[in-house]
Structures are given as structure tokens and as C-alpha cells.
Amino acid sequence: MMNWLWRLFVATILFAVSDATPSSIACSSAPTVTIDSGEVVGTTTKLAGATITVDQYLGIPFAVSPTRFAPPVKPTPWKSPYQATKYGPACIQQFNYLEASRNTLIAWFNTPLPPAGENEDCLNLNVYVPATPGKIKTVMTWIYDIIIVTPNYRANVFGFPNSPELPLAKRNVGFWDQRIAGAASIDNLVLTHPKDPPFRAAIMESGQSSLYVNPTNAPTSWLALTAALNCTQTHPHSNLTCLRSVNASIIKSTAEHLTLPFRPVADNVTMHRYPEKARLNRDIAPVPILTGMNANEATIITLGQSNATAFLAPVLGNDTALIQEIVDTYTITPPARELAAILTDLLFTCPASIVANDSHASGFPTWQYYFNTSFPNTQLFPGAEVYHYSEIPIVWGTYPRENATAYEKALSRYMQSAWATFARNPTGGPGWEALHRIASLGSGGILNTPIDSDMIGRNCFLFGPYYKELGFFA
Ligand SMILES: *[C@@H]1O[C@H](CO)[C@@H](O)[C@H](O)[C@H]1NC(C)=O
Ligand SMILES: *[C@@H]1O[C@H](CO)[C@@H](O)[C@H](O)[C@H]1NC(C)=O
Ligand SMILES: *[C@@H]1O[C@H](CO)[C@@H](O)[C@H](O)[C@H]1NC(C)=O
Ligand SMILES: *[C@@H]1O[C@H](CO)[C@@H](O)[C@H](O)[C@H]1NC(C)=O
Ligand SMILES: *[C@@H]1O[C@H](CO)[C@@H](O)[C@H](O)[C@H]1NC(C)=O
Ligand SMILES: *[C@@H]1O[C@H](CO)[C@@H](O)[C@H](O)[C@H]1NC(C)=O
Ligand SMILES: *[C@@H]1O[C@H](CO)[C@@H](O)[C@H](O)[C@H]1NC(C)=O
Ligand SMILES: *[C@@H]1O[C@H](CO)[C@@H](O)[C@H](O)[C@H]1NC(C)=O
Ligand SMILES: *[C@@H]1O[C@H](CO)[C@@H](O)[C@H](O)[C@H]1NC(C)=O
Predict the structure, then answer these.
(1) In this structure, which residue's CA is closest to atom 9 in ligand 4?
(2) Which residue's C-alpha comes closest to atom 11 of ligand 3?
(3) Is 232 in the pocket of ligand 2 (CB under 6 A)?
(4) Residue 227 and residue 12: Cα distance in Å, rounded?
(5) Whole-prediction pTM value?
(6) pLDDT tens digit string along 336-382?
(7) Measured in angstroms, how far is the CA atom of residue 378 from the centroid of ligand 7?
(8) Which domains does the chain have, with CATH numbers?
(9) 139: pLDDT strictly greater than 70
């Protein structure tokens, strides 16, 4: 369960915004750029749904093929031009059993399979640049004058092994991948780059990473995995050496069958123990943020379940008094909707609102949205409503064109424009009022209805003790 949650949060698409000067030589030959590692040759193309020409550079290595469970190492410069013409492998994904729920998740989030498959050798990124230098042009259907970079990073046991044999600050190798690549898990990068951040603004959709730290740093999953693979018996002097020699497919499959969650440890380098304390002390990257959440984030987490008491018990450490208070406070019917509403607040609305409020209170320009509409052609299942992820096809402009409504297209254009406006000039905002006003996007068929902060997350006070225990704040 928790691993599934963690995967969702980390996978949420986020943007760090910085500047780059396109230096492509636009002529009939293939586009070419020179980076630290050498020359890179791409292709000029049109992306699906777009009318504008784009130079794309695919699968550029930003590190050498990684040693399993070790931080990334910068690539050795290449001598002949790197042909960045096809996607590199994706990192290995974990889809836990049982079979039925595993297949559903794969169908939702891993179909079709990545073009170059999954491999441990996955530290590559893709760059999309407007083909015409200088003049502002559309890069993808959803964004205007912005170079898009999409890096891979290691996840699950390959990214967050938490082996006691590794120094604490070298255990979150997935975060080190992100640092060397320069993007992803944006809130965490904001929190851990107080000086000279390599970005000038951040957009965080549906969450922040701070809440999902392993509060005790206990290596529970690592121990279970090494035991299951007999490393503890065969290599008592180094379970790490043993696990480095096991076939990656077997590691993946064992973690999936045992449903082992691998989460980052709080090392105070790549991940803070008390992130909101750091934010309130202004000991973070001093950048504007755009953050927000969806109205029914948790429907895909609670699908098929309706007993809030039973669901919350393992999450809230069997605190029956607190669980009763929560259930009594939410008076939503039927029970499945109530459970989804509780989880939406607990895991998304409240943490993201606290981050936004703290960012604003610390004097960083802060804008917030509340995505509050759903469309028939992006519904995953009946009752999914405004589920986690459902804004992404709208922001990226990748929603199915089949059965798309005029309103869906208009909202997509509006959100793309807001995101791009913010990216171009972060201190100017996305085009609506800063906190404590929030843009309610799509409510009642209206693109943007300005609301007050106190309109959402009224029940957040209930979760304070839980957040505190996790170390969300000190
Ligand atoms: C681990 O050891 C047990 C008992 O000796 C054996 O049944 C099992 O197949 C071994 N597992 C692996 C992955 O080697
Ligand atoms: C390997 O795992 C076993 C069982 O958890 C433990 O007793 C042993 O200390 C570990 N070895 C090292 C070097 O950490
Ligand atoms: C790992 O195991 C998989 C599945 O059994 C197999 O296809 C693959 O060839 C193995 N890889 C190596 C490097 O042995
Ligand atoms: C991280 O910092 C907190 C105080 O903010 C401290 O309590 C904790 O022990 C530190 N952890 C490590 C691993 O240094
Ligand atoms: C919900 O779960 C609790 C505890 O797990 C149980 O006592 C209760 O009977 C369940 N409620 C329903 C309606 O099944
Ligand atoms: C909650 O209670 C269950 C059943 O009594 C127990 O197995 C579990 O360890 C408890 N969890 C916590 C976090 O206390
Ligand atoms: C579009 O609508 C038709 C008719 O309702 C339906 O059969 C089809 O599955 C829909 N396609 C999508 C992508 O929603
Ligand atoms: C979200 O949309 C629903 C249905 O249109 C509306 O009743 C509700 O007030 C909206 N919520 C917010 C916070 O805008
Ligand atoms: C954020 O601040 C606003 C304005 O003070 C407040 O109404 C709201 O409850 C706060 N949100 C949370 C989650 O504390």
C-alpha cells in the first residue's frame, strides 16, 4: 500500500524552471548541440497533437551506467557525436501483487511499455527545444517558449535501498540521480538547495515529497529483501555485496511479491527530517512556487474500499480516538466517497496547503490552484472524478482527442498558458492572485473561479498530530 502511494507521489509530474539558450544550428541538417560531455545530435520533428517543429534530443546519458545502490557518476566525455535519436531505457518500476491490482496499475500507468524497456542502466534524459532559435515558438502543444527536459531517476529499491551498510547520505541514490540530472521531486530540491539553486522557480502538482520520508530511517524493507534472497545467510559480512550480485529481475519480482515499500531516508542532505521547519526558517531555495491539488485525489487509492476505520488504522498507527474523530467530522455519503475525501485531505490537500501557506508566510511568492473538474474521456473508472493524475493530460495537452469536449480543450489551453506564463516570469505569477487567494480551475464549467484559502482543507487541523509525528514539521 505505502509503496503504491510513494510511487504516486514521486511520479507526479513536476517542473523546475530555469533558463537555457538554444544553440541548435537550424538548417536542413540534423540539429546539434554541445554539452559538457560532448556533441549531441538530435532530430527535428513534430510531436503528436502539435503543429510546430521541435528539435528533440532523446536518451542523453547524464551519468555513466550506475553501480547498483551507489550514487550516480558523471558521464565520461564522448569523442564522436552522441546520436540522441531514440529513447533510452526507463528505470525499473515496482508493481506490487496481488495480480489483479497489479495488472490494473500496469494498465493505467505502464501501458504501452516504455519504448526502450526497463533497465538499471536508465540514467538518461530527453530534451525538447523549439526548432526556431530566438523567436518565441510553441515547443509542445502545452507550452510556449520553454525547453522541456525529462530525466529518469532510480526508484524503489534501486533508488532508495536504505542499506545500513551505506553511509546515510549515500542511501537516497534516486535523489542523487535527480540532482545530477537537475530536475524532479521538486519540493525536495527546493528544500535542499538553500544556496544557488540550479532553477529559478518550481511547480508542484498534487503534493510535496516532504511527508513521505521514512521517519525512523528503519531499514525494514531492506532487511526483508536481503533475508528473502538468502543474502543474510550466504553473505552475513555484506548483504549489500550479495544483493549487488542478484539478477535485477529477481530483486524486482521479490519486492513486488513481498510488497516492500522503499522510501527515502532523512539524511538532512537530500531529504530534511523537518522540512517545514527549514521552509519557515527560509533555509531553502528562495524561489517562487506554483502549487495545487485535485479535488478527489484519493479515489484511485481507495478504489474498491469503503471502510474508513479499517483503512485508516494502519496509516494512523491504530489511534482509534483520532480515527473516530476523523470519521465523525467528515459527514459524506456513501462511505466510499467519505473515505476518498479523508485520504484526499490527509495525503494531498492538507500537506500541499501547508507547504503553500508556509512558503507564503516565509515571503516566497506563492500561487495555488485547485483542479476541480473531470471529463468523460479521461475517467479511469466510474466514480474516479478528479482523481490524482487527472490534471496531467490537461496540462500536457495529451488528453484523448476522441470525445474531447470544447470545454476540455479550452481548460487545457488555459492551464498550459498559465503554466508557461509562470515559467517565463515566475515573480509575475501564472495569471491569478497570489495566496491567500486560490484559483479553482474548472469548477462548475468555469475556467478559473478565484476562491479564498479557507475554502479548502477545513478539516486539516485533524491531521496535525500525525504530520508532526512523521516529522513534517518539528
Ligand atoms: C533461499 O533458501 C531457501 C532455503 O534454503 C530456498 O528454499 C530458497 O530457494 C532460497 N532462495 C533463493 C532466492 O535463493
Ligand atoms: C546482514 O544481515 C544480517 C541479518 O539482518 C545482519 O545480522 C548482518 O549484520 C548484516 N550484515 C551487515 C554487514 O550489515
Ligand atoms: C535475469 O533474469 C531474467 C528473467 O529470469 C532473464 O531474462 C535475464 O536474462 C537475467 N539477466 C541476467 C543478467 O542474467
Ligand atoms: C537531521 O536534523 C534533525 C534536526 O533538524 C536532527 O534531529 C536529526 O538527528 C538529523 N539527522 C541526521 C541523520 O543528521
Ligand atoms: C469497518 O472496520 C472495522 C474495524 O476494522 C470493523 O469493526 C467494522 O465492523 C467495519 N465496518 C463495516 C461497515 O464493515
Ligand atoms: C495495529 O494493530 C494491528 C492489529 O492489532 C497490529 O498488527 C499492528 O502492528 C498495529 N500497527 C501499529 C502501527 O501499531
Ligand atoms: C467516445 O464515445 C463513444 C460513444 O459514447 C465510446 O464508445 C468511446 O469509448 C469513447 N471513447 C473515449 C476515448 O472515451
Ligand atoms: C468544486 O466543484 C463542485 C462542483 O462543481 C462545486 O460544488 C464546489 O464548490 C467546487 N469547489 C471549490 C472549492 O471550488
Ligand atoms: C492556509 O492559510 C489560510 C489563510 O490563513 C487558512 O485559512 C487555511 O486554513 C490554511 N491552510 C492550512 C492547511 O492550514
Answers:
(1) 273
(2) 247
(3) yes
(4) 32
(5) 0.89
(6) 999 999 999 999 999 999 999 999 999 999 999 999 999 999 999 99
(7) 10
(8) 288-474 (3.40.50.1820)
(9) no
